C-alpha cells in the first residue's frame, strides 16, 4: 500500500511539474508579446497579421529617438492619451505622402491634449533624413515625434509585423534606398501601416490597419478619433 501511495505521489509530482512548466512557458510567451521580443512569431504576409484591437491593453515597448536615446512607451504611466501611427519608413513614397497630409491636423490634435507618436522602421539617424525634402518641409516646426522601431519591438508587440519579401528588399536596393539596420534588414520585418488610439488608462480605443500599404486613415478621421479620446 505504501508503495502505491509513493507511486501516486510521484505521478502527482510529475503532473504538477509539467503544469508548472506549461505555466512558465505561457508566461514567457505572454511577456514576449507584451514587450515585443524578437522571438515572437511574425506573420508571413500583411494579410495574416493579428493586430491588437479595441479594448486590449496597449503593449509596453522600447524604441529610439533620432539621437539614439531610448524611448519607453509604458501604457501604465501615460499622462495624456496617445495616438500611435506606424509606417514603413522614409523610403516609402506613400508614407511620405501620409506624413505630409498629417501636417493639417497634428497641431489641433496636440491642442486637444493628445500626444502623437510616429513609429518608423528606419534606423534612428534616418528618421528625418530618409524623408523626402518636401515632406521634411511640410512637417518642419510641427513638433512631429518620429521614433525608430528598427528593432521591431513595437510592430511585433502591436501585432502588425510581417515578413518583408525578397521582392521588396530587391526593389529598395534597386532604388538606392538606405535601409541598412532598419527593421526590414535586421529582422526581416515590415509593419503594416496602422493607427492605434490609446486612452490615459492604456486601453486601445481605436485601431486601424490595412494590409494595402497604399490605403491610410484619412487625416480628418484621425482628428475625429483624437477628439473622441480627448473627451474621455
Question: What would you say this structure looks like, in words?
Answer:
With 232 residues, the chain is an alpha/beta fold. The chain has a single domain (36-231), classed as Glutaredoxin (3-Layer(aba) Sandwich), CATH 3.40.30. Helices cover 38% and strands 18% of the residues. It contains eight helices and nine strands. The strands form three sheets. The chain has a five-stranded mixed beta sheet. Helix 2 runs parallel beside helix 4 (133-139). The longest helix is centred in the first third of the chain and has 34 residues, at 2-35. The chain is globular and about 45 Å long. The protein starts with a helix and ends with a helix. Mean pLDDT is 81; it is low at 14-39.
Our estimate of the beta-strand percent is 15-25%
Q: Biggest sheet, open or closed, and with what strands and sense?
A: 5 strands, mixed
Broad shape: globular
- Count of domain modules: 1
Q: Quick one: CATH superfamily? A: Glutaredoxin
Total number of helices = 8
Secondary-structure class: alpha/beta
- What average pLDDT do the residues reach? 81
Radius of gyration over all CA atoms, rounded? 21 Å
